[in-house]
Amino acid sequence: MNNHLTELDSTNDPELVSLVSLYIDGQISEEEKTKLEQMLMNNDAAQDYFATQLRMDAEISEHMQPIKVEMTQKRHLVFERKGGIPKIVARESHVTRIGNPDTGEFLELPPGLEDASVTRKRITMIVIGLLALVGALIAILIWQANRPAPITPPATLELRNAGFEETDLSLDESSTNYSVPSWQEFFRSAKARTVAPLKSSSSDTPKEAHSGNNVGHLSPGSFITQRLLYSDNTPLLARKGLHLRVHGWAYVPKQDESHKLRMAIRYVKNIHPEMLQYEPCKTIVTTQSGAWQKFQVDLILPSDSLLLKPSDFEKGVSAGAQVDLDGKAINLSIDNRDRASIFLDDLSIEIIEESAL
């Protein structure tokens, strides 16, 4: 070697290093290849550097391509006696070998020994953590089982379609619809209907509803009937002394005399082929004409006995035997047996407990 080699080793010509790297990686261009050949020509140090890099790359490729990594777990047991007491030391090690399976040449990395007691400590900590997690889950389940149940408000008795708003008449050319939802469950009266006062041109119709858009219209001789249900859809059952109170608003076209509206609690036993009803209580609502009037009526079932004869049945049909209404599902019936039309709105019903009397 000459002095120029020593100079090259100490300076590591960046251009030569870069061109050699590009050549080994197979990414050198023709122009760069020509430049590298010129640098190697008549330069022993550059030629030695180039040859050394090629040899190192060949050796690495021979050992590492194709590459294979093997990891082997080993257990080491050491038996010894200290102070007359036998002692056994258990250790574990992991040996890693990297090399070329085609040539059989491998490099073995030094094993790292680990005392088995350390492994046991780790396992113990993992088990303790899992037990703590299981304990926490059990505590959560116990808390959920014992926590107070959410408070559900008690079911209340309520009338459905109490304001007659379930029928949308906004897009209807007519102001009247002969359907009265929830009020025609057993029987249908052709003279009962739903009316939108603001769209009506009839002088008998109120100028506006008491609230909302619609009202119920009962022509003379018509009626509406609704099955009485709680807010959870369970039926109201008859019992001795049951006290019901009905509230609402009524309108009668302007005339000189008062008018009467009949309300009753009924039990419908049959509809077809023979209609058969029982009426444990009834009352009359007296209304004045010319304006919306608020009314309140009480309907009280007999307190001594609910064994009754039929109140309504078809002509020519036997009235049938008495029926004990205790525990039977009951209904509210509103009848217009007057000579004038009656309009209704904003109806409601409640149970009056004895303590409230």
Provide structural commentary:
The radius of gyration is 50 Å and the shape is elongated. The protein contains five helices and 18 strands. Residues 1-11 have low confidence and may be disordered. Strand 2 (85-100) and strand 3 form a beta hairpin. The chain has 357 residues and is α+β, with helices and mostly antiparallel strands. It has helices at residues 3-11, 14-25, 30-40, 44-64, 116-146; strands at residues 68-82, 85-100, 105-115, 157-158, 176-177, 192-195, 215-218, 223-227, 229-230, 243-251, 259-270, 276-287, 293-300, 307-308, 312-313, 323-324, 331-335, 342-351. It is 24% helix and 34% strand. It folds into three domains: 3-64, no CATH class; 68-145, no CATH class; 157-356, Sandwich (Jelly Rolls), CATH 2.60.120.260. The N and C termini lie far apart (125 Å). It has a six-stranded antiparallel beta sheet with strand order 5-6-7-18-10-13, with no helix packed on it. Strands 8-17-11-12-15 form a five-stranded antiparallel beta sheet, with no helix packed on it.
DSSP strand count:
18
What is the molecular shape? elongated
The SSE string, one letter per element, is HHHHEEEHEEEEEEEEEEEEEEE
The structural class is alpha+beta
Give the biggest sheet.
6 strands, antiparallel
Determine and state the CATH class of the largest domain: Mainly Beta
CA distance, first residue to last residue? 125 Å
Helical residues, percent: 10-25%
Count of helical regions: 5
CA radius of gyration: 50 Å
